[in-house]
Amino acid sequence: MHHGSTMVDFKDRLKSALEHAGMTPVQLASRLGVTRQAIENAVKGRSDSLSAENCAKAARVMSVDGYWLATGDGEMVNQEKDVIEVWPFPVVDRARYERLDAKGRGYIQATVVEIMGELEAKQAASLGKAGVLIQHAADPLKTGRAV
């Protein structure tokens, strides 16, 4: 199925991207941190688009090309970007992954992206807390110790 520039309406591209990722509008809304209504309105054509930030996030979560999702130009899945040169999962048989259809691979990619985002946020939060603790320890006035 060709998903190139023939898909004029954002709602149609969004529906195709959701299908590609094996996701529902509710799942996408949850992953983007927006309301269910925001995504459902876009899918039903009541809204012409998402914000630029949410459109970019949605493309990443659904493993589709962001420029295509926003404009309709190009292909839904950029084959050049979809190729994994180095297999990053030594405990997962690459051949098993490659036997999955595009929907299955898209689901796995979207899940990995989501998990990575959660882990990066946790890591950033713990680094931020560590930075605050180090900063307080270095400043006797913040620790409450007498100078």
Question: Any overview of this molecule?
Answer:
There is one protein chain. The chain has one domain (10-113): lambda repressor-like DNA-binding domains (434 Repressor (Amino-terminal Domain)). The chain has nine helices and no strands. The chain has helices at 10-21, 25-32, 36-43, 52-62, 66-71, 79-82, 94-99, 102-138, 140-143. Mean pLDDT is 79; it is low at 1-5, 135-140 and 142-147.
Provide a short characterization of the protein structure:
The protein is an all-alpha fold and 147 residues long.
Would you spell out the secondary-structure blueprint of this structure?
Elements: H1 10-21, H2 25-32, H3 36-43, H4 52-62, H5 66-71, H6 79-82, H7 94-99, H8 102-138, H9 140-143
Overall domain count: 1
Q: Which structural class do you get from the secondary structure elements? A: mainly alpha
CATH superfamily assignment? lambda repressor-like DNA-binding domains
Count of runs of 4 or more consecutive helical residues: 9
CATH topology-level fold name: 434 Repressor (Amino-terminal Domain)
Number of strands: 0
Shape: globular
Quickly name the level 1 CATH class: Mainly Alpha
The helix/strand series, from N terminus to C terminus, equals HHHHHHHHH
Uncertain residue segments: 1-5, 135-140, 142-147
Overall pLDDT:
79
What is the radius of gyration?
Answer: 20 Å
Strand residue percentage: under 5%
What labels describe this entry?
147 residues; 434 Repressor (Amino-terminal Domain); 9 helices
